[in-house]
Sequence to fold (107 residues):
Amino acid sequence: MSEVKKELEYDEEDSLRFIQEHLPEEMKDEFSDDEINYIVDLIYEFYEDKGFLDASEESEIEIDEDELLDYIFENARKDNVREFTDEQIEAIVAGELTYCDTLNLFD
Fold:
């Protein structure tokens, strides 16, 4: 079982590739790797703030996607890394969440 788990570990490069491939057609090639990684970093900052990354916790995690998106909208605008539209942020977040689903990270 542990060998299967190792094969399904999170990989930043795989995540980035997955998100790029799963963006809506009109958004393909619109973002640099750094811009996508910035949004993904915000996702994990949210998880950290919520205590979802505490390795000692074995409880079930429920992610409120609206709360997650609000957090990212607020911080992306504050940091002003790029003028992201809500739709762009939603597409990147959806790609990351789908990637995590393929790994069963939150089951």
User: Anything to note?
Assistant: The two ends are 16 Å apart (CA to CA). The chain has five helices and no strands. The CA atoms of residues 74 and 80 lie 10 Å apart. Residues 1-7 have pLDDT under 50 and may be disordered.
